[in-house]
Structure formats: structure tokens, C-alpha cells
């Protein structure tokens, strides 16, 4: 089960509406949060009128509470059981200093309860609250229905989706990526702006590949840490025909990469592979990259920093590993299907038939015997979210495209890591990718999280996002 996350809760109130609605809302949301494994941070009933926020004094108390828990609060939910005081909500968020996503909910009225003693007017109040948040420059999210009861199952899912949005935003604003080695000379497609990323809170730590290989070459097969990592590798995937000498090389490199990540507190890596590793060290790094990605420390090849950034964003949204793939081949004459491919570093979650193997295409130039460590495996049918984050240096922005489709079990007779994807209006998507200068790399995740990513990347990160429908 995912670790419980904390969300601040503001219960809006207005003095000429029934106060008991605030007490009822407080009980509702505590029950719902408990059912969804979420932790609510909200005023106690004795800290304000029934725990609601109405006056400036209430706003101060709630803001202080949020400040006390600022390290754990990933988002704020605004509940409007009645019209609510729009200034109280906005002032709480302003005074708290929190820069987190905000979800605004409003309760529905009952047609038989529109008398003075029981009416809510939350429909109207929500508009006023949003108007004030807009004036204050506070970004916020909306429920799909203008008013919805918290006990409605649809709201429960929206709350979970909102928590996912919060995870993505929080993660991207503090992510640390390791760039291992230089970009392969032939891959202009993976160039990116480190400065634009840094402006958005994304830090990149670089290291020369020679340093990594130098440390790896100083290790021996008898070192305890090498033996331990070799055991992990053999427990992770069948070795197939991979010789023992190659497995030792892979294990030594894995030791050094893991230590590099620990030393620099990295969340993700992008590693030079093509073709220095094979020519100067004698194996592929794909197995190590797969293991990292499976353990939620995504790793992309060809020093594709924004590729691994996309992997990280998708894993935050879904809670499951991502994989970097090539938009690689048409699938016969089916205009809504294509082949996704890479020579072998996808997370094990995508490869039920995983095996350590070689990279035949790369082997044509560096020798197949120097490419052990690539993985072979076919990805079966599943849900699919795909997308790509990229820096557009000429515009000085970060841009992205995202969408959903499906991975299929269609016949595919080839090698490496491979899958068949079915995407509505695939031809239109390829037009968009090509016209807007996106890379040949795309990221896939076995989920349906495009809406979450659109909200997080577009609304809160402020990036230019296209969602393909």
C-alpha cells in the first residue's frame, strides 16, 4: 500500500448559513480520508467555529497549522459545505506560504432543503472562492462536476487523482537527475537546456563516463559488494547465454552507478551507452538501468535527461515504473498501431519473459560479444499512458505532449524490448510530434494518467502541454 500522504483541509463557512453543515463536512472528510489512506490536516472543532474557516482570525489559525506541517502537506482541499467565506479561504492559503496544488469542492443542495435553515448555496460560493484565488494568483484545480458530495464515489477517485497531481508537482520541483557521460555524438535529438530545467527546480548532476568506468575497473569479482550485486542481478532476471565474465562486468558497473546515486541523492539517471560502454568497457548497462527503473529510480539511455524526467513524472502519477521507448515502426497497414522498441532497458514490470541477452543492432558495429547486459522481452497487453517532456530552447520553455491508448498482444516477431501500441488518431499524433520538434524517444507507463499529468504539468508547473485525444 502507498505511504499515507497529508493534505491540508480548509472547511469554508459563512455566518448566515447553517453552522452544522461545517460539523457534518468535517466528519465526512475525516471518514473519506481514512478510507482512502490519506491524512487530513485540519482545524479542531474547538479551534474555530466547529473547525471551519470564516474570519481572518480563523485564517491565521489554519495558516499556522499548515505551516507547522508544511514539510508533509502535498496539497490543500477546500471544502464548501455552504457558500463559504472566499476571503477566509484565500487568506489561509496566502498566510500559510504553501505553494502546493489546491482542489476546490462544493456540496450540492437538495431541492427539498432550500429553506433558510437548510440551504447551502455552495454552487455560488465556489465561483466566489475561485474568483478570489484567481485574484491572489493562487493556482487551483476543480472537480469535474461543479458540485459533488464527498461521499459520491466519483469524488473519492478525484481526490486520489488530486493526490497524484500533488505527488507529481512536489516531485518535479525538487527532482535530482544524474547525467552519466556525454551525449552520444550522433544523437542531437537528446540535447536539452540544463538552465531551463534548473529554473523549474530540476537539478542535473553530471559525471564523466570515464570516472564511472575507472571505478568499476578497480573492482574485482572477489569484492563482497560485487558478489552481492551479482546475486541481485541473477535474482532479477535469467542470465540466458550471458557468460560469467560479462555478468561480473555488469555487476561491477552496477555497484558504481548505485554508489553515484547515493552520493548525490539522485532520483533518476540518464546514462551514455551508445557506443562508449561497449567499446571501452565491454558490456551494456541495460540490466542495471532496468533494475533502477523497477525500483522507482528511473534510468534512460543515451543521456536523455528529459526522457528520464518524463519517466519520473509518469511514475509519480501512477505509482508504477515507466519505460523509455522509441517510436520505432509502423504495424503493417494499421494506422492506429505502431511498434515500440528499445534494445533492452525496460523495467521488469513490462517484461514477464525477461532475459539478459545482447543488442544485435549495436552488435553490428561494436561486436555482439560486447553487448551482453541488454534485456530481451515482450510487453503484453495493458493500459497505456505515453508522453514526452522536452525543453524548447529557442522559446525558452518546457513543453510536453501526453495521451492514452493501449498496449496489445498483436503478433510481433523481433528481438529486444518490444511492444505494440494502439493509439487513437496515431497519424495525427505523429504529425504533432514531428511539426513541434519532439524527440524520437517517448515514455510509456501502464496506466491511465494523462489527465493527472496534464493538470500537474500544465496548471501547476506552468509548462506548455498538449493532450492528444
UniProtKB/TrEMBL annotation:
Top-rank taxon, per record: Bacteria
Keyword list, A-Z: Carbohydrate metabolism, Isomerase
SUPFAM superfamilies: FucI/AraA N-terminal and middle domains
Keyword Signal carried by entry: no
GO MF, one annotated term: isomerase activity
L-fucose isomerase C-terminal domain residues: 340-466
The protein, known as: L-fucose/L-arabinose isomerase family protein
Species lineage: Bacteria, Pseudomonadati, Bacteroidota, Sphingobacteriia, Sphingobacteriales
